[in-house]
Amino acid sequence: MKLLDERVWALFKRNWYQTLTYWSVFFSFGLCIAFLGPTILDLRCQTQSTLQQITWVFFSQQFFLLVGSSLGGLFKKTLLSSLSALFSCTLIISLVFAIIPLCNHVILLSIAMAIAGKAMGVIDTIANLQLVKMYQRDSAIFLQALHFFIGLGALVSPLVADPFLSENSCVLGTNWTANSSSSSSADLYHLRSSMAGHGTALHNISQYPLHTEGTVITRVSYAFWIIALINLPVPAAVLTLMYYERLLPCFSNSPRLLAKDSSTSSAEDSGQGHGSVFICCNPAKLRGRPPTFFLLHILGGAILFITDGIIGSYAGFVYTYAVSPPLLMGHKTAGYLDSVFWAAITAGRLASIYLSYRYTAPRLLTFSLV
Q: Which PANTHER family match (predicted)?
């Protein structure tokens, strides 16, 4: 039994480089979304901030991801604007990873994560939209593969970070001595327990040593620089696609480009075309719809966003929850939990590439929600 019929396979062969490029930018998305959780305690030391302060970087990243997703629609009108936005955003992600080790204050770190979050949001919107435009009603299987690459990037980033995470307290207080080194590991467990996601733990943290001033001893900077290098081929791939599509300035007068833009614009303006998935957004088609039509779409969107929020929260706090009482997992063991979690998501999305082709969306959603 073939995984793809000949028609869908022919579509992929005709658009393989564009498709692989859009998949690769979601790899950048995955690198960003999973890197903050395991490194948050080392970043607290780097910025010499309290635990209450450092948790704001989660909010900063997620809020601006929402903003970026909303703004991403502004770049959809032409292929040039879409690819230019993708190139800028993937390059920004590498730059942000490179400068995070230089952020010695929690406000600077929050600004850096906000910039990365906005870039992630733009990537999320544009890559999904371009694949839907390209494959129309056959886009489901390619969108599943797209989201597989999120899991792949999120699987890689905690593995890169783990060797550089601090084993003991990474801020040595001014009164620290060699005799106090034996208790530093136990103190670190208490510090991490406050990050388990419960507000009460944050209020009770004062009973444990929590140095915000002193000598910072952390090697997490190397992890960020390595990730920045790993991500660099992604903007290079987008730039290559722009060259292939004759969208660079030296090819701006290409007849091929003008013909493609003309046909694309006319198809978008009419909102029609063979199997167009955007026909449902035509106001004329929405008139007379029963209230249940809108209710189902609202509930479906709510489930989508809630599920995505749960994924982000779990990935951010599972590490610190694991090293806190009563689990008290070892540092290295807990460090792999993020990777195990994202490996499971990646496997599920890989399986969904085939399942979405063989089964209808209602059946898959019903099974998954149950």
A: MAJOR FACILITATOR SUPERFAMILY DOMAIN-CONTAINING PROTEIN 4A, SODIUM-DEPENDENT GLUCOSE TRANSPORTER 1
Write out the H or E segment, with its range, that includes residue 3. none
Residue 42 CB coordination number (10 Å): 23
What is the average per-residue pLDDT within 26-30?
Answer: 88
For 14-174+190-251+275-369, CATH gives: 1.20.1250.20
Which spans in the chain are helix H?
Answer: 6-14, 16-47, 51-54, 56-71, 79-99, 106-135, 140-161, 184-193, 199-203, 220-231, 233-244, 255-270, 283-286, 291-322, 331-335, 337-358, 361-369
Report residue 168 as tokens. 């003991």
Cα 101 from Cα 85, distance rounded (Å):
25
pLDDT tens per residue across span 202-255: 333 333 344 555 566 778 889 999 999 999 999 999 999 988 888 877 655 544
Cβ neighbours of residue 241 closer than 8 Å, sequence gap 6 or more: 17, 18, 21, 83
The radius of gyration of the chain's CA atoms, rounded to the nearest angstrom, is 23
DSSP 205: G
Q: Is the peptide bond before 326 cis (omega within 30 degrees of 0)?
A: yes
Q: Which helix (H) or strand (E) holds 171?
A: strand 171-172
By three-state DSSP, how is residue 61 classified?
helix
The pTM for the full model equals: 0.71
Measured between alpha carbons, how far is 338 from 206 in angstroms, rounded to an integer?
A: 28
Alpha carbon distance 250, 241 (integer Å): 14
Pairwise CA distance, residues 256 & 258, whole Å: 6
Measure the CA–CA gap between 339 and 154, rounded to whole angstroms. 7
Residues 141, 5: contact at Cβ < 8 Å? Answer: no
Angle (CA) 170 175 180, round 5° = 65
Domain boundaries, the chain: 14-174+190-251+275-369
Report yes or no: 318 and 191 within 8 Å, Cβ to Cβ.
no
